[in-house]
Amino acid sequence: MVPGVVPVALLVARTDTHAVLVDNLLAYPTGFDFDLAVRRHPRQPRQHHGRAHLWGDELRLEVRFADGRSADNDPRSWPRPAGDQPPDPPVLYQSTSGPDGGHVWLWGLPPPGPLFFTCQWPAQQIPPWEAVLDAGLVLAAARRAQTLWPKETSA
Amino acid sequence: MVWVRIGWCLHPSRRSCRSRRLRTVGPPGSSRPPTWSPGILPVELILARTPQRAIGLTGIRAYPTGFGCTLHLRLREVIPGEQSNFGAFNMFGDGVDPAGEFADYYLRFGVGFADGRKATNLNQRWDFDESPAPDPPTLRLVRWEGYDLLAWEVDVWVWGLPPPGPLVFACEWPARGISETRVEIDAGPVLEAAGRAVPIWPDQTPP
Q1: Which of B129, B207, B204 minimizes the C-alpha distance to A43?
Q2: How many helices (H) and strands (E) does chain A have?
Q3: I want to staple B87 with a disulfide (CB 3.0 to 4.6 A). Which of A15, A97, B106, B131 is the partner?
Q4: B158 has pLDDT over 90
């Protein structure tokens, strides 16, 4: 399947030294994915972190739907597998993470209304910030996702 | 639909997720300006499709110095005996035979501007030393995210904005049965999207 493009790059947080963007938003009938992009001010030197660091040092992200359901990138909150039954959406999975951010997949499409992205990064002195996206843009993009082969199931 | 228990990807095309982001250090202009937020032009193309293989393209994320897009490489099923290496980066000479010819399993992708200039992934630069900025356009594959053997996404950066007129995306994947294919869009909206890019910090210098 080729996804639909959400035509927005969302600035979620910005301090004097760092910014967090939600970029490259792509939508499918079952959810959407995006780059959680960390940007440093040109005057801010790159910091190198040891490989072993605590969850508390990571960039934290929560996505909240208009109906109150939410998901975050804390791996401790991921649902445990229950046979072949998929979990109740939304579920957020961050496949990569690092000083430049990572790639995120969110299972479950939001209902119409505001879609909230909240982030905080205590290790980089980024307090909780929130940005809002019209979920209608995500839903419209999901409808434009293209099935490549006619018998391919979409969900 | 198979629900993957490792990481719970739950994505229609994913089985397991592996990702690699290549270093984009290099001369200024040879990678997306890191402190800008792009203008987005929603483009969703199927560049090529056979009964078993397909290449999609989404984007476009435009900046004053160039634009990015994402290739979606899809295999309907694994064909026994088929080369599993996607081969697109040629960082270490993979995909190139001793005679300098690219192997059939090497994905070829390029862009063509209305003034005749073009860039492909066949001559990507991987020198991480400081060097003069290349003449635009240049094309680099900067990130891939692989979902076992069936689905991969590859981010592309093109340095240099096209002039008005047709903008061509071309691809070829001989080992996968995809002959050279071209899809054309109007570069005008790409340029308009580049005009909508904004600096993240108001006090930063232009790219």
Answers
A1: B204
A2: 1, 10
A3: B106
A4: yes
pLDDT digits (tens, 9 = 90+) for B4-47: 323 334 454 443 444 554 444 445 556 788 899 999 999 999 99
- Beta-strand pair B66-75/B53-63: antiparallel
User: Quick check: B194 pLDDT over 80?
Assistant: yes
Q: Provide the CATH number for the domain around residue A103.
A: 2.60.40
- When CB atoms are compared, the residue of B9, B35, B204 closest to A105 is B9
Cβ–Cβ contact B151 with A under 8 A: no
Q: Does A79 contact B8 at a Cβ distance shorter than 8 Å?
A: yes
Pick A21 or A85 by higher pLDDT. A21
Q: How far apart are CA B189 and CA B62, in angstroms?
A: 10
Average pLDDT for chain B: 79
User: Are A91 and B49 inside 8 Å of each other by CB?
Assistant: no
What percent of chain B clears pLDDT 70, i.e. is strictly above it? 69
Alpha-carbon distance of B34 to B207, in angstroms, equals: 9
**A136 within some domain:** yes
Domains and CATH numbers, chain B: 18-80+87-199 (2.60.40)
Return the structure tokens found at B127: 């020198």
**Residue linked to tokens 């018998």:** A151
Is residue A17, in this structure, part of any structural domain at all?
yes
- The residue range of the domain holding A16 is 4-43+57-144
SS3 B123: helix
Structural domains of chain A, count: 1
Q: Where are the alpha helices (DSSP H) in chain A?
A: 135-144
Enumerate the residues of chain B whose CB falls inside 8 A of the CB of residue A76.
none
What CA–CA distances, in Å, run from B40 to A27, A126, A129?
Answer: 15, 26, 23
pLDDT band at B85 (very low <50, low <70, confident <90, very high): low
Residue type, B18: R
B12, B19, B61 member nearest A96 (Cβ): B19
Assembly ipTM: 0.87
